[in-house]
Amino acid sequence: MAPLANSKPEFLNPQAINVAPASAGPDDPASDRDPYPNCPLPDPPGLVKERRIKDDGRYIIFYWEEGSRPHV
Amino acid sequence: MSELRWNPILREWVVTATHRQERTYKPPADFCPLCPTRPGEHPTEVPAPTYDIVVFENKFPSFRRQPPAPAVAGDELNPVAPASGICEVVLYSPEHKGSLATSPLSRLRRLVRVWTDRYRELGSRPFIKYVLIFENKGDVIGVTLEHPHGQIYGFPFIPPRPGIELEAANDYWQEKQRCLFCDLLARDLEDGRRIVAASKQYVAFVPFAARYPYEVHIMPRRHLGSLADLTLSESDELAAMLKLVTQKYDNLFGFSLPYMMIMHQSPTDGKEYPGYHFHIEFYPPHRTATRLKYLAGCESGAGTFINDTLPEEKAAELRNLAPHTVEELPDA
């Protein structure tokens, strides 16, 4: 939703709000699958990140120091 | 249920998140949901026998990537919107006990890089306009889980307090083509009385108009808008300054001092904020070892803080506590 033209600062304008593309879906964890399954960004310097999806659809990201990741 | 309800009188959003009433409340250490899932023991939020630093979506979020439909219909006077956004939990360590003050510096350096990665990733999502990285620490703050952790809220709007800062910074920038924060920092450094600690790239100080007796801000000397603008050297030195300030806090009264820590960064709405300056704010509620600063009638009802202390005196107290410089910290 694009902000409306308004002389007020943006944060004082209720129209200046963004909504996720598939908003207003049912409140069902099964529908809450991660729309970004692959991280779009490279690993942070010196770290390796591993992204997983939990049973209930929430994502979890493990950050390990390079070379220290155990076998899990 | 969760939704955003607009208060047209205060011109602010309120998040209703009724499911948060059911969130885990002070479980015994044996059943900490933030510890690793050890073989043969109860499953936790982290399905692995160990980890270093972990980020996951909050089980009881205030904002969701795919939020439910609001419980009530809004109208022109009372707008309502889906509580769209992302809420993450950041686990600092697999150890159940600990804090920023007690963590090895090497761990804090990794943590700053993780925070930076989260700011970049959440900020890159089109529906996230503001990334708020924060930590609530201590029972008196209302923390429900003892395990060292922080949180990240990806807001679908710019929240009011950063919004006020952005407006002030933008007005100053437009008028003087200078950064308001840089000018205030230069004045504080020249004055010296409110400086708590300084390093090559950062300054920690009690602000001139501090709201809390031991409020401390950490600000980079270089003008930059967010964690994403830090060089690697600045990122690592920020870790050291965080450790220094939190160790001073713990040495203040001889116990691990509760606080709220909030990172104020440029919004991620795709616009330019040349006049904004990244910084971290700490609000410890203690005004003495045994007395707290409450947000009572004047603060909550009028929005005006009463500070029972002089920032110059509180800064001197903190300045005189060890450690005094980041060079004193063990490099581990």
Number of domains of chain B: 1
Overall pLDDT of chain A: 70
Query: Which oligomeric form is depicted?
Result: heterodimer
- Radius of gyration of chain A, in Å, reads 19 Å
Biggest sheet details of chain B: 9 strands, antiparallel
Strand order of the largest sheet of chain B: 3-5-7-6-11-12-10-9-8
Description of the molecule:
The complex is a heterodimer of chains A (72) and B (332). Chain A has no helices and two strands. Chain A is elongated, with a radius of gyration of 19 Å. By secondary structure, chain A is mostly beta strands. Chain A has one domain. In chain A, strand 1 and strand 2 form a beta hairpin. Chain B is α+β, with helices and mostly antiparallel strands. Chain B has a single domain, classed as HIT family, subunit A (2-Layer Sandwich), CATH 3.30.428. Chain B has six helices and twelve strands. In chain B, helix 1 crosses helix 4. The termini of chain B are far apart. The interface between A and B is large, with 45 and 56 residues. Strand 2 of chain A pairs antiparallel with strand 3 of chain B, so a sheet runs across the interface.
SSE layout and pairings?
The complex is a heterodimer of chains A (72) and B (332).
Chain A lengths: L46 E7 L5 E7 L7
Chain B lengths: L1 E6 L4 E6 L35 E5 L22 E3 L3 E6 L13 H19 L6 E8 L11 E7 L4 H17 L3 H12 L3 E4 L3 E4 L10 E5 L11 H22 L5 E6 L14 E5 L13 H6 L8 H9 L13
Antiparallel strand pairs in B: 1-2, 1-4, 3-5, 5-7, 6-7, 6-11, 8-9, 9-10, 10-12, 11-12
Helix pairs in contact in B: 1-4
